[in-house]
Design brief:
The protein is of the alpha+beta class. The chain has one domain (about 30-225). Helix content is about 45%, strand content about 20%. The strands form 2 sheets. A 4-stranded antiparallel sheet has the order 1-5-6-4, sandwiched between helices. Helix 1 packs across helix 7 (about 145-155), helix 5 packs antiparallel against helix 7 and helix 7 packs across helix 8 (about 190-205). The model is unreliable at about 1-20 and about 20-40 (pLDDT under 50).
Amino acid sequence: MKKYLFTAVFFLLIFIIISCTNQRPAYIPDVDSSVFNFEKTANININNIIDTQDGIHSEAAGPDIIMPEWLRVFLYGGAGIVEMLRSYNNKYIFIAVSQGVNLAALNIWMERFSPGQDFPVYAAERIEKKMISSTTQYPDYEYGLFFEKLVKNAFCWEYPGVNKEDSYWIKILTDNASSQTYMAFVLLSIDRSALQNIINDMMTQTMTEVTPTRAQTAAINRLKQNFFTGF
């Protein structure tokens, strides 16, 4: 059922992007990234990386893959694991990814990536996924119009305090090893309490725009109470 839901939500988000107009701390332990086995990465095998922004050094034991710690950890376990690094304590991490055969174009994408203009897409996607994972039914049924309105507001909201921390590219062989492609990554961060306040304000504003039923109101209140658990 949720497979079809994601398809429906995708088209909803396309509509929102087109129609959108301008609107208005827990302890995180340090992580020793050396414990991660990069070769267990689901999407990218270390043996398929043939170049990086800093190059690959040859060693007697094999190639030395050069890349930032945050990217190595991200490729292992996602942005949530990056948030556990000491460098990003008390921050939410978002990582934008782009792929293509034209490195010059990807370098331009990384250089011109704007936190103010581009970040809302990634924030809205994370908010949408959290709402979907928190429901046992269709979110537009359990939360009513609150679901659609909140996602739309997330796309149109302002997120002061977002920082573009770093960017990096790698070059990989495709699965069949018959072609090569580049992958570019942009690391974004925002203070955890700041983003939580922004989302809480967004929820409050959204509630003034809808008229949920009693059951939907109860579901929305439960969502708000537990929203940042595992967010």
